[in-house]
Design brief:
The complex is a heterodimer of chains A (352) and B (558).
Chain A: H1 2-5, H2 22-31, H3 34-54, E1 67-73, H4 107-116, E2 125-128, H5 139-175, H6 177-192, H7 195-206, H8 210-237, H9 240-247, H10 252-288, H11 300-312, H12 317-344
Chain B: E1 3-17, E2 20-34, E3 39-43, H1 50-55, E4 65-73, E5 76-77, H2 83-89, E6 94-97, H3 101-104, H4 111-123, H5 127-140, H6 146-149, H7 159-171, E7 177-181, H8 189-206, E8 209-214, H9 217-223, E9 226-231, E10 234-240, H10 241-246, H11 251-259, H12 273-277, E11 295-309, E12 315-329, E13 333-337, H13 344-351, E14 359-364, E15 367-368, H14 374-381, E16 384-387, H15 401-411, H16 418-431, H17 448-460, E17 466-470, H18 478-495, E18 498-503, H19 506-512, E19 515-520, E20 523-529, H20 530-535, H21 540-547
Parallel strand pairs in B: 3-8, 3-9, 6-7, 7-8, 13-18, 13-19, 16-17, 17-18
Antiparallel strand pairs in B: 1-2, 1-4, 4-5, 9-10, 11-12, 11-14, 14-15, 19-20
Helix pairs in contact in B: 4-5, 5-7, 7-8, 15-16, 15-17, 16-17, 17-18
The chains are: A mainly alpha (352), B alpha/beta (558).
């Protein structure tokens, strides 16, 4: 994040030692936080998983129907053979339909053609590691693929929301006056409508798909971040270091994004990580309502939507898998965010 | 003996590095006594441990502090007192007044509510009784219309009045000891004088003891009976005030006495602590200035108004600066003096057009700065630069010193390449007395005086002709102030800079200025050379400013 806003340090010619930067110091503080490091590791594992799925190395064939429908998880063993009542063979005499069946003359021809082709029914597994869905797709693979979709939506949505919120917040806080008033009106309009209603309205406009979900969420979720960034810019724009920058002739843009932004970036960063968590949950809600990702995609939300009807029949594993993946990721991400805030906020330092 | 501190040591735990707890020892074996009905002053630069010493009496230190030694108050060791015993003492027997009155008062309660709280809590008064007592207290600390002021919120009072309220609160339970931690540092000189007199008067009336903490030896000389000089957590010297001033024993005390600019004599350079302690003497002769140097900056009828909203549509004009005229010659210094609110800072910012002026002319090198378009203005910015008051706030904390210095050169395309700019930045760092290792460091790694040097170096990167110094040394300790003032004088001699030196401290202004403007309520009330202002002030206001400057210890007989 810093590299985007700070000029990259020029190569040092003389043996001038460069002092520890603010981000480096924050990283060192983070390393001392055990919970933070553990959650960071979990999140990193998820990121690796997402990269692998995105590259198609893992869970590429999540749509393959590899097990019997609603295959049970491996540890539960195969489903006992169903004592299903076999439909009784009718006992009456055979009725010859040949003279009324218009297709009867072609049966023989079809049988000959079918004999030329070989069909092979792939053996379907009776059990899968975490069970299968109603089509026999592997729930574990689906959950991994769903992780990619859901986390991608959460992250992209949060990044877009942070960009919108930061840009508008910076303009409103720095310039104030007419610009600030206009943006406040915009903010008020957005916050006056209930979030879920706004999301549904945007969803109706943008249609389904991973990209549109990310955009919908960011268009709805930027308001809180905007408000906070605006407050920070209001506070910083009258600070002396910004005045000093003005005195040496730095332009408004340079003051806003080169001077102030690095000083408030920790706020944006932490706020953004909180948005990620919220957006993942919103994506689940949207997909559950059928307004989320497309039908040929899988996300934690679509899994939960499917799980609803399965649960009535006693097939609980899809629900459990999606919930467990989501719970672990979101808990780890929230804890990581917490640790990041502690590490980045110098005011909380030295109280150990 | 009311309070006796014996071999006090205070260390702060700074967190573990490789499993070993790091400690910073702020106070290293301090001993002194506070007699009944006496005033003891703790004097030292920032970081000398004087505040930590005072705060450890009531254990108002953060949780990571470790104290050892003895603090005996009326025969009881406070170091081993538990919290409930301390809370019974806090406010009732021992009361505190802090530096920042705005920060010490709760903004959402009225003055009356805050004054009544200790009365009801410690003295068990009825609310009605407490309210009456609060009114009496406000009257005692000299606040006009106390009955009305009881219902005022802190932000409705001026800084001096807020500090008076703090003192009234401290006095409310008739304490035996008043700890005043730099109570006047945030205030104007004239208000400082009033608060000092108030503390002295109340001390007599209530027969209490005062532990007065300050970095200014001159101030302490006026109020204390006994002075304790501290540096780096140890007591350098202590004794009665007359002996400290007339026959200081310790080299550090002598240096502290010498480094403050005096109204009486005006050397070319001020003494600096280290030089003085090494036995060097200051250059005495100032380089004479050319009285016929060309006029660089000419200001005519400069005015700046702010519009205050007084109702939904109503607004009122507040004239922050009106009708300011002056001329500044090349290589000369114009001092601007006044209390806070006199418009001197606004005037400085208006010169640079950091505030848009409402009227008047600023002729710089024959051109009116106020009518320039943006391009020309950008060019002119190079030639007039500003140094701000607070060196902790005026440097971007996320920029290294190198980035801070190179940025202005990049904006104005000074220097052909990055390498050349770096070379210039290093040279400037050396010029302001920092070594080249500072280049890669961040501002928080420097002390206040060093930061102010960096801020000066940043201005110098643009090769300005006029520097506006807005209270540039006011936030610094007396000794560091001397160093920065010397640096400014040296730079003026070397580079022929002109300064507009804005300050509330007449002694400092007198040291550096050739001509002085005295401002009050946005207007210039007196304008004369530095010598004339001191020798024969024409205005009552100027005389009051002069009278308010602490003069150190003056024997009562004289």
């Amino acid at each position: 994040m810093t590299s985007a806003v700070l000029p990259s340090p020029p190569p040092q010619r003389a043996p001038v030692q460069r002092s520890e930067g603010v981000w480096h110091a924050a990283w060192k503080r983070l390393l001392k936080d055990r919970v933070g490091i553990a959650s960071l590791a979990v999140v990193a594992l998820f990121i690796v998983l997402i990269v692998l799925t995105a590259l198609g190395l893992v869970a590429k064939s999540w749509q393959a129907e590899v097990g019997v429908p609603n295959a049970r998880p491996g540890f539960m063993g195969a489903a006992p053979p169903e004592a299903a009542a076999v439909i009784e063979t009718p006992k009456g005499p055979n009725v010859d339909l040949s003279d009324v069946d218009p297709l009867a003359p072609r049966y023989k021809e079809w049988a000959e053609r079918a004999a030329k082709l070989k069909t092979e029914e792939a053996p379907r597994a009776q059990t899968l590691p975490l069970g299968g869905d109603r089509l026999g797709r592997d729930v574990l693979v689906k959950a991994m693929k769903g992780t990619q979709t859901s986390v991608f939506v959460g992250l992209m949505g949060a990044v877009f929301a942070a960009i919108i919120g930061t840009l508008l917040g910076a303009l409103a806080g720095f310039f104030g006056g007419k610009v600030g008033d206009f943006l406040e009106w915009l903010y008020n309009v957005f916050t006056a409508i209930p979030d879920i209603l706004l999301i549904l309205a945007f969803a109706a406009v943008f249609g389904r798909g991973v990209g549109s979900v990310a955009i919908i969420l960011s268009l709805v979720g930027w308001t809180g971040l905007y408000r906070q960034v605006r407050a920070e810019f209001l506070k910083h724009s009258v600070r002396e270091y910004v005045r000093a920058a003005e005195a040496i002739g730095a332009s408004s843009m340079s003051r806003m994004f080169k001077h102030i932004l690095p000083n408030v970036s920790h706020v944006i960063f932490v706020r953004m990580s909180l948005l990620v968590v919220g957006f993942i949950k919103y994506e689940v809600i949207l997909s559950y309502l059928g307004l989320g990702v497309g039908v040929d995609d899988v996300s934690w939300g679509t899994m939960l939507a499917e799980a609803q009807s399965e649960l009535i029949l006693g097939y609980w594993w899809q629900l459990a898998a999606a919930t467990a993946f989501m719970a672990v990721f979101i808990t780890a991400f929230s804890l990581m965010t917490d640790a990041l805030r502690d590490a980045l906020d110098p005011k909380l330092r030295g109280l150990e | 003996m009311l309070l006796s501190i014996q071999d006090l040591r205070v260390a702060f735990r700074m967190g573990k590095v490789d499993g070993v707890m790091q400690r910073f020892e702020a106070v290293k074996g301090v001993s002194f006594d506070v007699p009944e009905n006496g005033t003891v002053a703790l004097v030292g630069e920032s970081g000398s441990g004087k505040s930590v010493t005072a705060m450890s009496v009531l254990n108002l230190l953060p949780d990571n502090a470790e104290r050892s030694g003895k603090i005996v108050y009326q025969g009881k060791d406070l170091l081993h007192a538990d919290l409930s015993e301390l809370q019974a003492l806090r406010g009732k027997d021992i009361a505190c007044v802090f530096q920042d009155p705005m920060g010490s008062l709760n903004p959402v309660f009225t003055v009356g509510q805050q004054l009544c709280e200790p009365l009801i809590k410690h003295l068990g008064m009825k609310p009605r009784e407490a309210w009456a007592r609060a009114e009496a207290l406000l009257a005692e600390v000299g606040i006009p219309e106390p009955k009305r002021r009881l219902k005022a919120y802190p932000h409705e009072l001026s800084g001096g009045q807020q500090q008076r309220v703090m003192i009234a609160m401290a006095l409310s339970c008739e304490p035996k000891l008043l700890i005043a931690d730099e109570p006047t540092t945030a205030l104007d000189v004239t208000i400082q004088r009033q608060i000092l007199e108030l503390i002295a008067k109340l001390k007599e009336q209530h027969r209490m003891s005062v532990l007065f903490i300050s970095h200014d030896l001159g101030l302490v000389g006026e109020i204390a009976d006994h002075v304790v000089v501290m540096r780096n957590g140890i007591v350098r010297e202590q004794g009665p005030v007359a002996r400290i001033f007339n026959a200081p024993q310790d080299a550090y005390t002598k240096a502290l006495l010498a480094c403050r600019p005096h109204l009486g004599e005006n050397p070319a350079r001020l003494m600096v602590i280290d030089e003085h302690m090494q036995g060097q003497t200051a250059r005495t002769q100032a380089k004479p200035k050319d009285p016929n140097a060309p006029v660089l900056l000419e200001v005519k009828a400069l005015a700046k108004s702010f519009w205050l909203h007084t109702g939904l549509f109503a607004r009122r004009e507040f004239k922050a600066v009106r009708g300011v005229n002056f001329q500044l010659r090349r290589g000369h210094t114009l001092g601007v003096v006044g209390e806070s609110g006199s418009g001197k800072t606004t005037m400085g910012l208006t010169l640079l057009r950091l505030h848009e002026p409402t009227g008047g002319e600023v002729m710089f090198d024959g051109r009116n700065l106020l009518t320039l378009n943006d391009r020309e203005r950008q060019h002119m910015r190079r030639r007039i630069q500003i140094v701000f008051q607070n060196p902790y706030a005026s440097l971007n904390p996320r920029f290294t010193v190198g980035q801070t210095l190179i940025e202005p050169m990049e904006i104005h395309k000074i220097g052909a390449s990055t390498a050349e700019r770096k070379e210039r930045a290093r040279a400037l760092l050396e010029k302001v007395g920092l070594d080249a290792t500072a280049f890669g460091k961040y501002p928080h790694e420097f002390s206040g005086g060093q930061r102010q040097r960096i801020a000066i170096a940043r201005c110098l990167t643009l090769e300005p002709e006029v520097l506006i110094l807005d209270e540039a040394v006011s936030a610094l300790d007396v000794s560091v102030q001397a160093q920065v003032l010397n640096l400014l004088k040296d730079l003026q001699d070397e580079l022929g800079l002109s300064y507009v030196f804005i300050s509330h401290d007449l002694a400092v202004v007198r040291f550096i200025s050739d001509e002085v403007l005295v401002m009050k309520d946005g207007e210039v009330v007196e304008q004369a050379t530095a010598e004339e202002i001191l020798a024969a002030p024409k205005q009552e206001y100027t005389r009051r400013l002069l009278g308010a400057i602490p003069r150190g210890y003056v024997p009562a007989a004289a």
